[in-house]
């Protein structure tokens, strides 16, 4: 079933849009099944699970950390992460830079954008994103690759479209305002239920879990 789900999604996914298979809560066997079908980018959101899988699975996997990251868990994530998609505070950004200086590693990150009225969401407001990008010179051990965001949790397709459109507009504005940011070209929006809408609104990466692996297994 995993192989079939991947095939169906990849048939629809435009070339140039990366598929991150969200493997959180799924066992190694499920990830290996996707891996054997050619999938290489996987997303996890719990540091301990992330670290355990990273050392046990093939080393050419491109690991994305997509969850809220506490600064005391950096050592479990940063040695293995190809991309930290969920940098949601200035404090976390500073901690990643400090860790990078100590460990001589530059970490690729996305700034998580908070839009809409949902108080539970984390991330930077659009104005805060622009303020942070003015400060990139203060973070030599961080490479700013783009933005990540989620639409409001609703069945209203128009509302979801509007959310993704707002994030895409911000992404375009940031690229225009800060052309010196080499590699600032990734927009990670869209999950299992709304990835098609995200792609229509400029997403360069979608994070799909349930539609590939089914419901969580543990």
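^ structure tokens above, recovered residues below v
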């Amino acid at each position: 079933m995993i192989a079939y789900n991947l095939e169906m999604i990849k048939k629809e996914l435009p070339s140039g849009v990366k598929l991150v298979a969200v493997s959180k809560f799924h066992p190694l066997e499920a990830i290996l099944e996707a891996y054997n079908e050619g999938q290489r980018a996987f997303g996890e959101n719990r540091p301990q699970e992330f670290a355990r899988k990273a050392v046990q699975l093939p080393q050419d996997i491109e690991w994305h950390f997509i969850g809220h990251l506490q600064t005391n868990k950096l050592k479990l994530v940063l040695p293995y992460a190809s991309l930290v998609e969920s940098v949601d505070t200035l404090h976390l950004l500073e901690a990643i830079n400090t860790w990078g200086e100590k460990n001589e590693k530059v970490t690729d990150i996305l700034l998580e954008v908070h839009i809409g009225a949902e108080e539970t969401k984390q991330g930077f407001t659009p104005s805060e994103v622009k303020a942070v990008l003015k400060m990139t010179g203060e973070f030599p051990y961080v490479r700013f690759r783009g933005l990540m965001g989620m639409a409001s949790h609703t069945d209203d397709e128009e509302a979801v479209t509007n959310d993704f459109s707002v994030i895409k507009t911000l992404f375009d504005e940031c690229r225009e305002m800060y052309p010196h940011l080499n590699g600032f070209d990734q927009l990670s929006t869209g999950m299992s239920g709304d990835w098609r809408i995200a792609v229509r609104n400029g997403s360069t990466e979608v994070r799909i879990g349930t539609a590939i692996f089914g419901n969580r297994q543990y």
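Residues 157-177 form the longest helix (21 residues).
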